[in-house]
Amino acid sequence: MYVNQETLKQFEAAREQCVLCRLIDGNIPADPLFSNEQISLFKEIRPKVNGQLYITTHTHYPLLAYVPYEVTTQLFGCIPQIVEELRKQVACTGVDVLIVAGGVAGQTVGHVKIDVYPRDPSDGVYDFMIKPTVATERKDMLANNLTIMLRNHARRNGIKPIISKKDVPGAIYQDNHCAVLCPEKGVTKGHLIIKSKVNNNVEEWSTEHAAHMLYVASFASTALFEGLGAQGTTILLRSGQSDRQGSCKVHVIARFPDDDCEITPLTGNKDNRLNKMSITFKKERSVFDDLASLI
Ligand SMILES: [Zn+2]
Predict the structure, then answer these.
(1) How many A from CA of 14 to the centre of ligand 1?
(2) CATH label, 5-292, candidates 3.30.950.30, 3.90.220.20, 3.30.428.10, 1.10.1670.10
(3) Mean pLDDT on 94-119
(4) CA of 24 to the centre of ligand 1 (A)
(5) Could you give the percent of the chain with pLDDT greater than 70?
(6) For all residues of the chain together, what is the average pLDDT?
């Protein structure tokens, strides 16, 4: 979403009241695990599991849809390196990445935040996929909107048109890197699943692939807001053995009041011992260059 200077000023006016901005500005003491000009990683002070951390932007963006492409690429692109680092530092069999938007999805801070949970199947943090009982509505419209959004995104950023390589049957959107599926039954009336076509080990994803996967998730979230009137969305990347279905997926779930789709975390206060992390952003070929080469 294009953000003009006036809107940016409004976002910045919220800094004083925002706990994440206060952390970033040094008004609340904090020692980031990693920080560069755009993003920081912080250790969760009331963790549900050992090793829980979050990633946030230095600019106050209330929603993912407002974050510019260059910043989103860093925000999402660091995830594989964090997953790899957590698997070295913490005993875990998988890592979940959670992005919530809207109060009904559990968003408590009006500033983009990505929560990262090292997991093992018995930790009882939450079991989010327990009730896949509802049929997703208006699939054709979601498919249409998602394709248009990604095409516009390519155009806006001066990149060549996206060409979909259609090798996954039934996908509502696909390109060279991922396929978006609409399961027969979901946990709410809007539940989409994004699968990587490249690799199921998140820690082996390139910066660009990770960024693209979550970029598509972000647009899928917008499609659910606009198309189904969702009042919130939950984006959940499950990797490793935290997923009972056993493979890497990004779930994008439309949220509604009383949707009976609760994350039920344990109360926190586990130890959280984490060492500093080193994140590097290599300049890579844009995924859209690869997509354009399919023309
Ligand atoms: Zn803020």
Answers:
(1) 7
(2) 3.30.428.10
(3) 92
(4) 8
(5) 85
(6) 85
